[in-house]
Design brief:
The chain is an alpha+beta fold. The protein contains 4 helices and 10 strands; from the N terminus they run βαβαββββββαββα. The strands form 3 sheets. Strands 2, 3, 4, 5, 6 and 7 form a 6-stranded mixed β-sheet that branches. A two-stranded antiparallel sheet has the order 1-8. Strand 5 and strand 6 form a beta hairpin. It is rod-shaped, with a radius of gyration of 29 Å. The termini are far apart. About 10% of the residues are buried.
Length: about 180
């Protein structure tokens, strides 16, 4: 989603609409937590001025992220509305701290880095799989461990300590005499 300033200026009188699908799979390299990313739909319009273009966008798609508890794949929908302004040239008196605009690089306006940043900021700190389908493929056992529910809990004596348990049983039995 790149345009040169002359390309955008052609639409100055008629307006400019955007309805594109972008492949943002490179985000998986930036954030390894993202397991999959669907094609991202970018829909909206642009208001063009003599020194700026303002995009009014809706960004939607789906990320696949790991469940924070079980590491199972969880689909996470992205549906964001944003307004982004690009200045063709830096105006006198405007500082970077204003933060309300982006500068065109040379004579090119590129929306891709901004859309990537928006998607990355939408990723939650934690995400959990549906509680109706609790473990859904999460590992249930491994080397020297297994998941057991409270109902399955049985007081098992470690075989290495079995004789010690018998010692206490004999000691309690001797007290009763």
């Amino acid at each position: 989603m790149k345009w040169t300033i002359p390309q955008l200026q052609k639409f100055r009188d008629n307006g400019f609409t955007i309805d594109e699908t972008a492949d943002m799979s490179e985000l998986m390299k930036i954030d390894p937590q993202i397991r999959r990313i669907s094609p991202i739909r970018v829909f909206g319009k642009a208001d063009l001025g003599s020194n700026r273009v303002t995009f009014h966008l809706k960004i939607s798609g789906t990320l696949t992220l790991p469940c924070s508890r079980t590491l199972v794949d969880v689909p996470f929908p992205i549906d964001v509305q944003t307004t982004e302004t690009y200045l063709y040239n830096r105006l006198d008196g405007m500082e970077d701290e204003d933060g309300e605009f982006h500068l065109a690089e040379g004579d090119v306006v590129d929306l891709t880095p901004v859309i990537q940043e928006i998607i990355l900021t939408e990723i939650p700190m934690q995400i959990f799989c549906d509680s109706d389908n609790p473990v859904n493929g999460a590992p249930q056992s491994g080397d020297d461990w297994e998941v057991i529910s409270e109902d399955q809990q049985v007081k098992k004596v470690d075989p290495r300590l079995a004789k010690l348990a018998q010692l206490f049983d004999n000691h309690d039995h001797d007290k009763d005499k």
